[in-house]
Amino acid sequence: MSTTTRQIVLDPDAARNRRARERGPVTRRSARRRGLLLPLAFLAPAGLGYLVFYLWPTVRGIWLSFTSFNLLTPAEFVGLDNYRRLVQDPLFWDSLGITVWYVVLNIGLQTVLALIIALMMHQLTRSTFLRGVVLSPFMVSNVVAALVWLWILDTQFGVANQVLEWLGVGSIGFLTDEFWSIPTIAAINVWRHMGYTALLIFAGLQTLPDTVYEAARIDGAGETRIFFSITMPLLRPILALVLIMTIIGSFQVFDTVAVTTSGGPANSTNVLQLYIYDMAFGRFQFGYAAAMSVALLIVLGIITFIQFKLTRANKTDLD
Amino acid sequence: MNASHRRSRRLRGALAGLAAAALGLTGCASEGGEGVSSSSKTIDYWLWDTNQLPAYQRCADLFEESHPGLSVNITQYGWDDYWQLLTAGFIAERGPDVFTNHVSQYPQYVSLETVQPLDELEATAAVDEGEFQEGLSELWTGEGGRMYGMPKDWDTVAAFYNKDMVREAGLTEEDLATWDWNPRDGGGFEDVIARLTVDENGVRGDEPGFDKSKVEVYGLGLNEAGGSSFGQAQWSGFAAATGWRATDEPFWDTSYNFDDPRAQEALDWYFGLVDKGYMPAYGQFNQADGVAPQIASGSAAIAFDGSWSLRSYARSDLDLGTARYPTGPDGQAASMMNGLADSISRDADDPEAAAQWVAFMASPECQQAVARDGVVFPSRQDSTPLAAEAFAQMGLDPEPFTAPVEEDEVFYFPVTDHGADVRALAIPALEDIYANRAPASTLDRTNRAIDVLFETGEG
């Protein structure tokens, strides 16, 4: 097998001619078909995985969104009922609003911090150890990180609140106060993800050619001017990619909320994924939960499309 | 057991629960089902309360002695994981044969047809319902008059109090045994908890100069987001004392009464205790632990809790007393009553064998073993005195828990369809009253949403 493969790769015509000689004359079409077989064979495992784990669940999820389904009895087709309910469901719109507020805080803070860390890594250090330290929160599982922060921020026993009390500020209900809980959850996830995001931006920074920087310095540009006129524009495709990835991830926030607030108090942290989860697994309304998932899919699709257009993510300024 | 008691942790365990679901299913597939030897059938039985596990293991041993060829395999999962694993078990048809059930869950299981009517199985049909404490059979009887759970225990709610704190406040235990309450000024009950509240400077809640922002000891403890949909172990006794009931019919009603001004007045008074500094604010204590730690740590002088917690309080080193809810405007000191039962899964390998185990758990033999363990009040009337004696030996007076039952001053945990949906609507609304101090009249909106739920199935 390996020999044949190598022959094909090295000299496809020779292999084809030899096989043609062995089997007699063949039509052009069957030869082309045989030429297709090999790439298809290589694609098959990934293709199968895609079909089974992505395409089929997506299609089935979309189908279920048009049904009433409780997981234990057969799904019943209800047409657009779930979508009609979705439009009228104030809790859905509330949770979408809460999710957007979370994404704005989470992505805003995270991107700025990650950019600063990446620039510092790029300019100030070549230490692999330090780069590792920056990445370390990302090694902690989301649930563990959330649990640890839950205890750090506990109103009674938490270190954070004890420090605040010593400072005379007084205890803050970081995860129990309606005002603080979403910013706190956003901050916990910034803590966990900013190192990873910084590393992506850092990788982008390393691809920028030194020549432009040299030219800028020769022209007498200062560091600030270089950053805004050279680094940022050249980094745009990388930043766009990072933003698309992190925003999609941010919209899917679930575990941190589930561990720290369970959506409370009074639904103030009831993010969309949590609402969908509770609707399905808590209330057995899988059809409506599927409709909300489809809505989330559409929202994410639109956001990604707009981002892609606005940031021209598929074009580089280096050409 | 209180449905909401661990509600706040339900989603916290979400990921862990889902992960455990896969493990649990593979585990029960290998343990249960066909059994170890071909000659003996294994009945797979699930429960969530670790306190009850030893007593039911003894029952299982007794059952196996008297039922050759049958064995019982008991599995315990924490409340958080229990319902998820059970759901996963129903879906995969790999769940337990018999499981402990809760009234807040079983209507859903009935409508999903995952539990079997017990009247259709020989052994369970033969059990005399008259032996049970009054009201328990009705709790577990479905709309069609069929029984879906064999009552195994019952519970009521009463106050636990720190005797030393009561003495230091210049009060007597008699003051707590005879207290009264009304929704306008809280009556004698509010006087007691104001007196028991102490700020960091040692000033009591009813004294001039009391600083409600720096409270050292709260007169009344409170936890778990202010209670479940019905404030079972929190405000239910107060609201009921105004004559209010969550539903007009105790069982299978199709509307709720959260818009009743009597309940709203009681709730405004109850959560208003937070504003006065007599009760901790939302989030002040970790929700996961229940209210018992507030008593154990000396942070609260009084806490209402269910009889299922008697054993937990008995473990405390403190000298604790128990008292009934205060006598309300209706002249009663009523408590919510609820009870657990054993249900048989639709997927039980041998329903008749499962029914024999369920019937055995309701027998005097097993119920008395459970009673002597002092963990719950068993469902059989003849076992109640045994359990009461066991609790008394632990140093806690069980009378405030048994008296409402004996005097017929109980009301039941509402049993209706759409239980999970009602919870999803009511709990955030109640949290809004507790955490954000919204007026209880906001429950009008919640009640309308519940009405829509029953009309359309959407909520």
From TrEMBL, chain A:
<feature type="transmembrane region" description="Helical">
    <location>
        <begin position="100"/>
        <end position="121"/>
    </location>
</feature>
<feature type="transmembrane region" description="Helical">
    <location>
        <begin position="36"/>
        <end position="56"/>
    </location>
</feature>
<feature type="transmembrane region" description="Helical">
    <location>
        <begin position="133"/>
        <end position="152"/>
    </location>
</feature>
<feature type="transmembrane region" description="Helical">
    <location>
        <begin position="234"/>
        <end position="254"/>
    </location>
</feature>
<feature type="transmembrane region" description="Helical">
    <location>
        <begin position="286"/>
        <end position="306"/>
    </location>
</feature>
<dbReference type="Pfam" id="PF00528">
    <property type="entry name" value="BPD_transp_1"/>
</dbReference>
<dbReference type="InterPro" id="IPR035906">
    <property type="entry name" value="MetI-like_sf"/>
</dbReference>
<keyword id="KW-0472">Membrane</keyword>
<keyword id="KW-0812">Transmembrane</keyword>
<keyword id="KW-1133">Transmembrane helix</keyword>
<dbReference type="GO" id="GO:0055085">
    <property type="term" value="P:transmembrane transport"/>
</dbReference>
<dbReference type="GO" id="GO:0005886">
    <property type="term" value="C:plasma membrane"/>
</dbReference>
<protein>
    <submittedName>
        <fullName>Sugar ABC transporter permease</fullName>
    </submittedName>
</protein>
<comment type="similarity">
    <text>Belongs to the binding-protein-dependent transport system permease family.</text>
</comment>
<keyword id="KW-0813">Transport</keyword>
<feature type="domain" description="ABC transmembrane type-1">
    <location>
        <begin position="96"/>
        <end position="307"/>
    </location>
</feature>
<keyword id="KW-1003">Cell membrane</keyword>
<dbReference type="InterPro" id="IPR000515">
    <property type="entry name" value="MetI-like"/>
</dbReference>
<dbReference type="InterPro" id="IPR051393">
    <property type="entry name" value="ABC_transporter_permease"/>
</dbReference>
TrEMBL record, chain B:
<protein>
    <submittedName>
        <fullName>Sugar ABC transporter substrate-binding protein</fullName>
    </submittedName>
</protein>
<feature type="signal peptide">
    <location>
        <begin position="1"/>
        <end position="29"/>
    </location>
</feature>
<dbReference type="Pfam" id="PF13416">
    <property type="entry name" value="SBP_bac_8"/>
</dbReference>
<dbReference type="InterPro" id="IPR006059">
    <property type="entry name" value="SBP"/>
</dbReference>
<keyword id="KW-0732">Signal</keyword>
<comment type="similarity">
    <text>Belongs to the bacterial solute-binding protein 1 family.</text>
</comment>
<dbReference type="GO" id="GO:0030313">
    <property type="term" value="C:cell envelope"/>
</dbReference>
<dbReference type="InterPro" id="IPR050490">
    <property type="entry name" value="Bact_solute-bd_prot1"/>
</dbReference>
<keyword id="KW-0813">Transport</keyword>
